[in-house]
Amino acid sequence: MSERSPQLKDIWHRFDEADFENLKTRAKDADLELFNLGVTFTVYSDKDVIDRVLPFDIIPRVLTANEWNTIDRGVIQRVAAINAFLHDIYNDRHIINDGIVPADLVLGNSNYRDVMVGFTPACNVYTHISGTDIIRDDSGNFLVLEDNVRSPSGVSYVVENRHLMERSFPDLLADLKLRKVSDYGTNLFAKLSETAPEGCLDKDDPQVVVMSPGMFNSAYFEHIFLAREMGVPVVEGNDLFCDDDKVYMKTIGGPRRVDVIYRRIDDEFLDPEAFKPDSMLGVKGLVSAMLKGNVTIANALGTGVADDKAVYAYMPRIIKYYLDEEPILSNVETHICREQDALQYTLDHLDELVVKPVGESGGYGITIGPKASKEELATAREALLAKPSNFIAQPMISLSVCPTLGETDLVARHVDLRPFAITGKGTWVLPGGLTRVALKEGSLIVNSSQGGGTKDTWVLAETPFNPTDGGNS
Asked: Where is the signal peptide (predicted)?
């Protein structure tokens, strides 16, 4: 037991003492409340259901202050290296010229954007909002599984999960010393404001907007949530226009200059003049306005190169190259199948490895070797041989588990963690992040699209709980 065990014992004692049937009843009420609040996501592949409540498990994941300190420092280090990497590949390309990262892996990447070459966004920030997927191995080490730096989603569930716990289970949270999550919107607005362009009319209060594809997007609830938390408008492409390389928002009082766009739209749909001519989601002239330094787009165009699963394998070298530091959070061992030795190793150990396509997300396209059928392994082998550069392979890590509410008792289920970092003149990490849980027995895939759910993540504070903190811990 560590020196923090009294705090942990107190938390688990509260759940041990709670009546199990009462917990189940309250959990069902919590799910109903989430649906009534509109806290849903969309599953496009399901013809019968459009909006679903993301399953919420009431048993929290608890991190000690020391554990969180390691994660916090590791995420900040990683974000710094990613921003340095993105600036370099769109400017001097030292890391390519020095042979640290292969040129074709960057320049041939589908997310590489030529329009960004020679352009540096405000504060040298390319990835303003990032989500780092972290797992824990059998030895208790935190390992980075994936970087999400294009348009990471899920932070709304972090805040709403805490609010739900405070409303539905005040007895379980009473007087606990937890780091709060309710100030995410305030911090997000502050960091985005720091990256407002030099020509901003009011640097102390720039016009920030959240740009959404619209209500049929799977994460539309989150777009509304983020705008509400920051106190800014949600806009769609037809709400904006460009004039003289400046961006304006249509309002009932006339056009209003826009300084920062937190976009939740993919690069290729942002500007029909620069990318897809038939895009109905974007704004003509937006890229030109950005290049003239008249508007900040967060995250910047072309950040997806650092989101690539093959580039992920080079992150330890990238951190060392730019920061001259060893990674605080190590990668999961990764075999880059575009390299002949790695491909051969993957083919020879296919039934032992997890094979992932570099361009997919949401848990799609993954082959989990130890659990795959002969037919699935054969299909994976064919795909590897046909296009090895499209895959990476990793050992099957025995993910850590957390107690989860089952039908008749608490059960162990696999979890991961996605802390969210926001960067302006510095980087701030939301304490805790999104804990995703594989609700199906034996499953290792935590993605919501694959049947996963979420938990509230409690970070134990080093300072006493303040009952005057507005009720948001």
From this structure: none
Q: Is 466 helix (H, G, I), strand (E, B) or coil?
A: coil
DSSP 123-191: GG-S-SEEEEEEEE-TTS-EEEEEEE-SS---HHHHHHHHHHHHHH-HHHHTT--B---TTHHHHHHHH
Query: Domain boundaries in the chain?
Result: 5-327+398-459, 333-395
Q: Determine how β-strand 420-423 pairs with β-strand 129-136.
A: antiparallel
Place of tokens 């290049």: 291
Enter the DSSP assignment of 120: -
Strand partners, 355: 367, 393
For 253-264, b where at least 16 C-beta lie within 10 A, e where not — what string?
eeeebbbbbbbb
Q: Which CATH number fits domain 333-395: 2.30.260.10, 2.60.40.3580, 3.30.160.390, 3.30.1490.270?
A: 3.30.1490.270
Collapsing DSSP to helix, strand or coil, 272 comes out as coil
Helices then strands, counting H and E runs in the chain, come out as: 14, 23
At residue 335, the 3 state secondary structure works out as strand
- What does pTM read for this prediction? 0.88
Per-residue CA distances from 457 to 112, 402, 426, 432 (Å): 35, 11, 24, 5
> CB-side exposure of 226: number of CA atoms within 13 Å?
27
- By residue count, the chain amounts to 473
Contact 158, 85 (CB under 8 A): no
Report the C-alpha gap between 201 and 463 in whole angstroms: 40
**229-275 pLDDT, tens per residue?**
999 999 999 999 999 999 999 999 999 999 999 999 999 999 999 99
Peptide bond into 299 cis (omega under 30): yes
